[in-house]
UniProtKB/TrEMBL annotation:
<keyword id="KW-0378">Hydrolase</keyword>
<feature type="domain" description="Creatinase N-terminal">
    <location>
        <begin position="7"/>
        <end position="139"/>
    </location>
</feature>
<dbReference type="Pfam" id="PF16188">
    <property type="entry name" value="Peptidase_M24_C"/>
</dbReference>
<dbReference type="InterPro" id="IPR000587">
    <property type="entry name" value="Creatinase_N"/>
</dbReference>
<feature type="domain" description="Peptidase M24">
    <location>
        <begin position="310"/>
        <end position="523"/>
    </location>
</feature>
<dbReference type="Pfam" id="PF01321">
    <property type="entry name" value="Creatinase_N"/>
</dbReference>
<keyword id="KW-0645">Protease</keyword>
<keyword id="KW-0031">Aminopeptidase</keyword>
<dbReference type="InterPro" id="IPR050422">
    <property type="entry name" value="X-Pro_aminopeptidase_P"/>
</dbReference>
<feature type="domain" description="Peptidase M24 C-terminal">
    <location>
        <begin position="533"/>
        <end position="593"/>
    </location>
</feature>
<dbReference type="InterPro" id="IPR033740">
    <property type="entry name" value="Pept_M24B"/>
</dbReference>
<keyword id="KW-0479">Metal-binding</keyword>
<dbReference type="GO" id="GO:0070006">
    <property type="term" value="F:metalloaminopeptidase activity"/>
</dbReference>
<comment type="similarity">
    <text>Belongs to the peptidase M24B family.</text>
</comment>
<dbReference type="InterPro" id="IPR036005">
    <property type="entry name" value="Creatinase/aminopeptidase-like"/>
</dbReference>
<dbReference type="GO" id="GO:0005737">
    <property type="term" value="C:cytoplasm"/>
</dbReference>
<dbReference type="Pfam" id="PF16189">
    <property type="entry name" value="Creatinase_N_2"/>
</dbReference>
Length: 593
């Protein structure tokens, strides 16, 4: 099956053999992860879509793929319209599409280890309106036809030391035990991979760019725990780290273990635990409490050690990025560099630090029109030369043991057009407005989103992605629950210690993309005469913002002061790490407007 057409045909044959009229293929794994291992990349294998979020539905005579605004352009380049309909989320949903397209009485299959209970309920109700039914499968039919499917990762666990974590694993389990007692529950199921990594202070290499291991865990009200992970991943150092209070079992034993809680009350997160977990607990006689994973909020609120580590990682990473920006300033105008060359060069600068564990995501290296593809991923077939007179967008980050970074810079190659400068400056004004925001404790990220969009909106422009996402501590580069967005989240109150991105953008299809991204830390703010407890943002990312793209006359005095102050701090913090031509370039790049 060398083509995606062949794979689609093979899946339809398998569905007919399984007496199914259709099947839903989400881009996730049995842990509801955003970034998944190669073994779980079913959507990419079936359709060719390489984005990090999406779903597909395959019926006997039609098929559809569902993506959000980040991937509107990308899906059309990677997925053949001859076989797939393109559907936009949130304008529609898989459930709504099923309700409108399935034949009367159809049997639509789904894998209960890849969907939440809420999804199952919504899809089932939509199908019922057509006299159709949703059918849980014992084995995923995509896996049945994916003959060369990779095996799950087998890398060993590593201990995440307290000098990076800032809090011992036993202390974290005790806090969960206290939470269980307050919730009148006997145990809690942890299935989100980053929650397990954080709770037990362990890391892994089972998912590219995210240092987690494939595992499940159950934490009990007595602060003991059961960790379900492949035995070959656990060496003596990890056993000693976990201690006697953590019992280690084969990951394959997890599903059966869920049936052993008869008469007990067990908590599970309805957003992060798949439907199969709830079904197994209930089948075993447990009372299930649908509560948020107790690791989610403390993981998001970084402790002082994590904050200090993150700042150290940012300075190291900022120096690497600044060396790259100097390199592109020299090489870009020559017209010989391309997207792959640039991405490799940036990674090399990060590796030269001697501290890089991995990238935090595949570098978005977009020249000209490729920069307008929000989550573009360059390969040999899409690679473009970085040409004079164009914009180059690079969104990248590193995984370091003391922190996770994520930063975007847009660079003028040669002389930018007046339109490029104007729209870059609109984005910059939004970035500065959010960076300078002060807000009462209890404010949600969604309430701040307009600050970054207001200047674009004033000229009838916008961007189809959130303005900010949470970031982990040597964990996932996309971490909840906090977000700055008016859709798909943004309802979580921001709290001191949370780290988020500040990344407004603008994208002109077929021409160029603009995004300016720094990470920010939510911190308390002392305001004279304030009657409420106030918060604000401390900018954590330090690397020059391209002054050649700034239309200075569009900035207010306050905005100019912010940018000059920011660049002064970049020079102060990053300058001592550079030398020679790179330092000379940095001084010019950080000169006052």
């Amino acid at each position: 099956m060398s083509t995606h057409e062949d794979r689609l045909k093979a899946l339809r044959v398998q569905l007919a053999h399984d007496r199914l009229d259709g099947f839903v293929v989400p881009l996730t794994d049995e842990h509801m992860s955003e970034y998944v291992g190669a073994y779980a990349q079913r959507l990419a294998w079936l359709t060719g879509f390489q984005g990090s979020a999406g779903s597909a539905v395959v019926l006997a005579d039609e098929a559809a793929i569902f993506v959000d605004g980040r991937y509107t352009l990308q899906v059309r380049e990677q997925v053949d319209e001859a076989f797939w309909q393109y559907e936009s989320v949130p304008q529609t949903s898989v459930a709504a599409w099923l309700g409108a397209h399935v034949p009367e009485g159809a049997r639509i299959g789904y894998d209960p280890w890849l969907h939440t209970r809420a999804w199952v309920k919504a899809a089932g109700e939509a199908l019922a309106g057509r006299g159709a039914s949703l059918v849980a499968v014992d084995g995923n039919p995509v896996d049945a036809v994916w003959t060369d499917r990779p095996a799950p990762g087998n890398a060993r666990l590593v201990v995440h030391e307290d000098r990076y974590a800032g809090q011992g694993a036993a202390e974290k389990r005790q806090a969960m035990a206290d939470w269980l007692s307050a919730s009148r529950a006997d145990a809690v199921v942890l299935s989100a991979l980053d929650s397990i990594a954080w709770t037990f202070n362990i890391r892994g290499r089972d998912v590219a760019r995210t240092p987690v291991a494939l595992a499940y865990a159950i934490v009990h009200a007595d602060a003991t725990a059961d960790l379900y992970v492949a035995p070959e991943k656990v060496d003596q150092a990890v056993v000693q780290h976990l201690g006697n209070a953590v019992r280690v079992h084969d990951r394959a034993a997890f599903a059966d273990a869920l049936t052993g809680f008869a008469g007990k009350t067990v908590a599970a997160d309805p957003e992060r635990s798949v439907a199969a977990i709830f079904e197994a607990l209930e089948a075993g006689g447990a009372e299930v409490l649908a509560l948020r994973d107790p690791a989610v909020l403390p993981k998001a609120i970084k402790n002082p050690v994590e904050i200090a580590g993150h700042k150290a990682a940012q300075l190291r990473d900022g120096a690497a990025l600044s060396r790259f920006l100097h390199w592109i300033a020299v090489e870009g105008p020559k017209g010989t560099a391309d997207e792959l060359t640039a991405a490799a060069r940036l990674e090399a600068f990060r590796r030269d630090t001697g501290e890089l564990q991995d990238l935090s995501f595949d570098t978005i290296s977009g020249a000209g029109p490729n920069g307008a593809i929000v989550h573009y991923r360059v390969d040999e077939t899409t690679n473009r030369r970085i040409e004079p007179g164009s914009l180059y967008l690079v969104d990248s980050g590193g995984q370091y043991r003391d922190g996770t970074t994520d930063v975007t810079r847009t660079i003028a190659i040669g002389t930018p057009s007046a339109e490029m400068k104007r729209r870059f400056t609109l984005v910059l004004k939004g970035h500065i407005a959010l960076a300078r925001a002060q807000f009462p404790k209890g404010t949600r990220g969604g309430q701040l989103d307009i600050l970054a969009r207001q200047f674009l909106w004033a000229e009838g422009l916008d961007y189809a992605h959130g303005t900010g996402h949470g970031v982990g501590s040597f964990l996932s580069v996309h971490e909840g629950p906090q977000r700055i967005a008016t859709f798909g989240g943004g309802d979580e109150p921001l709290q001191a210690g949370m780290i988020l991105s500040n990344e407004p953008g603008y994208y002109k299809t077929g021409e160029y993309g603009i995004r300016i991204e720094n990470l920010v830390l939510v911190e308390p703010r002392e305001i004279a005469g304030a009657e409420r407890e106030m918060l604000g943002f401390e900018t954590l990312t330090y690397a020059p913002i391209d002054r050649n793209l700034v239309a200075v006359d569009m900035l207010t005095a306050e905005e100019r002061a912010w940018l000059d102050s920011y660049h002064a701090k970049v020079l102060d913090l990053i300058g001592p790490q550079l030398e020679g031509d790179a330092l000379d370039w940095l001084r010019k790049a950080c000169a006052p407007l």
